[in-house]
Amino acid sequence: MFSKAAYFLTLLSLATTGAYQTCEVPFGGDGVDDTQGLNALLPNCSSDAAIVFKEGVTYNISTPVNFGNLSNVEIQFLGNLDLPKSIPYVQSLVNATTGGRLYWFTMQGTNITLSGNKQNSDQGWIDSYGIPWWQEAQYTQPLGGLANRPHGWSITANSSTVRYMKLRKPVAWSFSLTGNDNHVYGNKIDAAYDLDNPGVFPFNTDGYDIKGNNVLFENNWVFNGDDCVAVNSGNNITVKNMVCEGGHGASLSSGNGVSNVLFDNITSINSLYATRFKSSLNAVGNITNVTWSNIHVHNATFPIFATGVYYDQNTNRGRTPGVYPANSTATHIKNFSWINVTGTISDVYTGDGSCTTDPCWYYVANATNTAAITLQLLNGTATNIQIHNVNLKPVDGKGTPNVVCDPSSFTDGTDNLGFKCVNGPYVPN
Ligand SMILES: *[C@@H]1O[C@H](CO)[C@@H](O)[C@H](O)[C@H]1NC(C)=O
Ligand SMILES: *[C@@H]1O[C@H](CO)[C@@H](O)[C@H](O)[C@H]1NC(C)=O
Ligand SMILES: *[C@@H]1O[C@H](CO)[C@@H](O)[C@H](O)[C@H]1NC(C)=O
Ligand SMILES: *[C@@H]1O[C@H](CO)[C@@H](O)[C@H](O)[C@H]1NC(C)=O
Ligand SMILES: *[C@@H]1O[C@H](CO)[C@@H](O)[C@H](O)[C@H]1NC(C)=O
Ligand SMILES: *[C@@H]1O[C@H](CO)[C@@H](O)[C@H](O)[C@H]1NC(C)=O
Ligand SMILES: *[C@@H]1O[C@H](CO)[C@@H](O)[C@H](O)[C@H]1NC(C)=O
Ligand SMILES: *[C@@H]1O[C@H](CO)[C@@H](O)[C@H](O)[C@H]1NC(C)=O
Ligand SMILES: *[C@@H]1O[C@H](CO)[C@@H](O)[C@H](O)[C@H]1NC(C)=O
Ligand SMILES: *[C@@H]1O[C@H](CO)[C@@H](O)[C@H](O)[C@H]1NC(C)=O
Ligand SMILES: *[C@@H]1O[C@H](CO)[C@@H](O)[C@H](O)[C@H]1NC(C)=O
Ligand SMILES: *[C@@H]1O[C@H](CO)[C@@H](O)[C@H](O)[C@H]1NC(C)=O
User: Fold this and answer.
1) Does 341 contact ligand 11 (Cβ within 6 A)?
2) Would 21 be classed as within a structural domain?
């Protein structure tokens, strides 16, 4: 009785309000650019629809896709997507783009769901064939990645979800996610590289760049060569239960306008940084209420790291790290805490393949190879910083964990800090 009534009600609502459509992306066959078929169906499938990349198919997505403005749309990546393998072809597309920034996938709207296939399935992979780009970067000057690299995904949306997506070998940046009330979970980004061959390094393969309010990230996995996740602006952002391998860690990367951020239960494996706050030298602004808790560190060069004086070594060649003019400014940070940070410091093979300058961009004056805590904060730019329950040991069991810390950084003194503020051994108090 009930189900029959529901059935007729459903038919009625379909007839009156416009049906929820399922739009299957047609597969054109070998050598056919499936973007054309996809573009043809988009005008009819941009609201109240599922756009389905079929399981068992490997689509050729040879040109960038602009999904346009979507509402109440779920895009299901059940099959695989192959992006083009020719570097000059892709570079020429990026060259032709105004401003030189090309995203391979672009969309905006409300209530968009990107949905991949099961995490352990061989279906649902989006393969960008980035390895040749990483390899060729070794022979290209200036070092640090090829010119004209495409970005991955630009999603500007509210009340939206990214789940179970699987990206393989991105050329460079993966997700740029802007908007409020978004939920990102169960995704994999595989820009895995050979730790023992630093010459081939996946430059700028940031996992997620996040802007927005009320954003929740959970159970994501990233192996890459830049920020695992970088929070850039917004309020009330939680990143939890995440695994970050290689790369530059769970980052807050911003000079202003970020508050109430929690990074919790992050496992960091063979990373340059496990946790990082980064703001550029001469930034002006405030960042408030940021916590990194329950951080499980395996072999990080800089497990706990904060800098208000970041500058790009590539564009500041010749500048001496650690030496700043007296009138330098920096972002003011307030109520930052690191609680329960345990594991090992990489003291045998420190750093990573992102170092292409001398001195290296991540060189820190006064840091040793066992830098448990490194705070590069200008005079009077930090208030209420607390770092408690730290248990970090050199990975080879030799030496002691050290800290870099300048008492003048803190407007409220060093009593709250949780350890002795010196350039020297870590001594909790
Ligand atoms: C859009 O849907 C309408 C109605 O179902 C159909 O007539 C039309 O051919 C479709 N257009 C495209 C581009 O698929
Ligand atoms: C969001 O979109 C889905 C379809 O992807 C739909 O089932 C759901 O009702 C929408 N939610 C809201 C709040 O409109
Ligand atoms: C792209 O543009 C750069 C200059 O910005 C040029 O050196 C390069 O040859 C161009 N590459 C392609 C494939 O068009
Ligand atoms: C903060 O964001 C979470 C989602 O992570 C949401 O559930 C919660 O309601 C937000 N809190 C406020 C005060 O908006
Ligand atoms: C921490 O995150 C991992 C996934 O990285 C998860 O398996 C584990 O259950 C989480 N622990 C807690 C206490 O939530
Ligand atoms: C620590 O990390 C470095 C650099 O990523 C790597 O070369 C080394 O093998 C790692 N050591 C261990 C013990 O995992
Ligand atoms: C930062 O906070 C200070 C003190 O509350 C305030 O004077 C200043 O305007 C703020 N700066 C920005 C860029 O919001
Ligand atoms: C920071 O947290 C405190 C205590 O929870 C709260 O009173 C304050 O409003 C927060 N600051 C911002 C900028 O949200
Ligand atoms: C290094 O440490 C010494 C002694 O603590 C200090 O005088 C010097 O300013 C530090 N150098 C830098 C660049 O921080
Ligand atoms: C510091 O002073 C120098 C010399 O007057 C000037 O060139 C520079 O712009 C100033 N920097 C800042 C951040 O004000
Ligand atoms: C730190 O770890 C202790 C012991 O495991 C736990 O009781 C406490 O809740 C943790 N603190 C935070 C902020 O998660
Ligand atoms: C820090 O700034 C304060 C106030 O401007 C000044 O009195 C003090 O000498 C400075 N300390 C250092 C170590 O530069």
Assistant:
1) no
2) no
C-alpha distances (whole Å) from 86 to each of 63, 104, 225, 357 are: 12, 14, 22, 29
Active site residue 226: yes
Which numbered ligand comes closest to the C-alpha of 423?
A: 9
Q: pLDDT digits over 48-104, tens only?
A: 999 999 999 999 999 999 999 999 999 999 999 999 999 999 999 999 998 889 999
Helix, strand, coil percentages for the chain (3-state, nearest 5): 10, 45, 45
Q: For the segment 366-421, what is each residue's pLDDT rounded down to a tens digit? A: 999 999 999 999 999 999 999 999 999 999 999 999 999 999 999 999 999 999 99
Enter the tokens of residue 195.
């730790």
- Of the residues 190, 206, 209, 226, only one is catalytic, namely 226
User: How sure is the predictor about 320, in pLDDT bands with cuts at 50, 70 and 90?
Assistant: confident
pLDDT greater than 70 at residue 2: no
For residue 129, report the distance from its CA to the centre of ligand 3, in Å. Answer: 20
Q: What is the mean pLDDT of residues 195-220?
A: 96
- 411 Cβ below 6 A of ligand 12: no
Domain ranges, residue 391: 61-425
The answer to the question of residue 195 being in a domain is yes
Name the active-site residue from 127, 209, 248, 352.
248
Whichever domain contains 276, its CATH number is 2.160.20.10
Contacts of 141 (CB under 8 A, 6+ apart): none
Number of domains in the chain: 1
DSSP 222-266: EEESS-SEEEEEEEEEEEEEEEEEETT-EEEE-SS-EEEEEEEEE
Q: Is residue 7 part of a domain?
A: no
Q: Is 14 in the pocket of ligand 7 (CB under 6 A)?
A: no
The number of the ligand 4 atom at minimal distance from the alpha carbon of 181 is 4
Question: pLDDT grade, residue 317 (50/70/90)?
Answer: low
Backbone conformation region of residue 82, classed left if phi is above 0, alpha if psi is from -120 to 50, else beta? beta
Establish if 411 belongs to a structural domain.
yes
For residue 56, the SS3 value is coil
